[in-house]
Amino acid sequence: xxxxxxxxxxxxxxxxxxxxxxxxxxxxxxxxxxxxxxxxxxxxxxxxxxxxxxxxxxxxxxxxxxxxxxxxxxxxxxxxxxxxxxxxxxxxxxxxxxxxxxxxxxxxxxxxxxxxxxxxxxxxxxxxxxxxxxxxxxxxxxxxxxxxxxxxxxxxxxxxxxxxxxxxxxxxxxxxxxxxxxxxxxxxxxxxxxxxxxxxxxxxxxxxxxxxxxxxxxxxxxxxxxxxxxxxxxxxxxxxxxxxxxxxxxxxxxxxxxxxxxxxxxxxxxxxxxxxxxxxxxxxxxxxxxxxxxxxxxxxxxxxxxxxxxxxxxxxxxxxxxxxxxxxxxxxxxxxxxxxxxxxxxxxxxxxxxxxxxxxxxxxxxxxxxxxxxxxxxxxxxxxxxxxxxxxxxxxxxxxxxxxxxxxxxxxxxxxxxxxxxxxxxxxx
Length: 429
Known about the structure:
Blueprint: H1 25-31, H2 76-83, H3 91-95, H4 99-106, H5 108-116, E1 122-129, E2 135-141, E3 146-149, E4 164-168, E5 172-176, E6 179-180, E7 184-185, E8 189-193, E9 198-201, E10 213-217, E11 220-224, E12 237-241, E13 246-250, E14 258-265, E15 268-274, E16 280-286, E17 291-294, H6 299-304, E18 309-312, E19 315-319, E20 326-331, E21 336-342, E22 355-361, E23 364-369, E24 374-377, E25 390-394, H7 398-411, E26 420-428
Antiparallel strand pairs: 1-2, 1-26, 2-3, 4-5, 5-8, 6-7, 8-9, 10-11, 11-12, 12-13, 14-15, 15-16, 16-17, 18-19, 19-20, 20-21, 22-23, 23-24, 24-25
């Protein structure tokens, strides 16, 4: 098995709904996993929507019903206890062992058990855009300390702009809305499952929009603002509940807004952007009351708030310099930005090394830059005594970063059109 070429991390050419032609129909119905909304990267539904017919006495966790054991000589419960401890990076190998192992890893039981036992691993996914407008995505396994390119995103988003990105359930990466170069604003919603390793369709949004803000509160996906098909600003907002699998309208914003930065902090959603008259507008949404209100009592926070930012351990952090090597936190008690956390090693001020996103990774703050370099800092370590320790997970090297900085400066405006990280999220499986 080690001599085979490594399988792609995302199987974008195959569908769980397909069955080998050589397999008999009765056997296929018994061995097929459940995948209701599994689709191809073109997002066209399978023409063979087969559903498995399980016998009452069979269960993928047990060895009853005459099935071969997962591991010969071991009870299935003990075999599962062994398999869930295999590193996530080797799960594609487990799927190649046999159909029963592949079916086990295709269900929620395997990864749900890993999560309950604290064995789930967090990987960082970055959606980026190159100078020609092509959208691609990469994944970072912190244990391997290297980015790996993934197969193409669904066709609708290969050249889209202004689309949103969010994570539901800890393992589903959603791409929604945006503007297609040919079709204009979209209502389309798709999501990638880190458990099934495939793209799926989700219900379309109620309004076409791009350049909007989105967030997740209580495992519900909220979107607001942006521009619609007519080119004007939108005040409308909507929410997606995965439990009901549908979108619902919620209270309109106080004013139309093109969000430039947003964050969930203290159970509320803060949005900051440009209004209809190109003025800076800030609003806050409270899910409990389903109401928007202008941010007046926290003017100090809004004034010093910039992108990228992240809420970690009930505290709001934002970049204090272009490369994200110096951070500052908002002190709600004092009503001011303070507590600067400086790495002491800045990589430059060009677009290539500009901090594009901040995410929470294993309780630490992770900074991702446009050149795909990554730094991690444990902000809680400096709460008591001493300075938080910075760690470089992925580095382009000092010489390469220095050369890139010079070339970007010489190129001027052209350098700003190169690779750019659009969204960065963490998926757990």
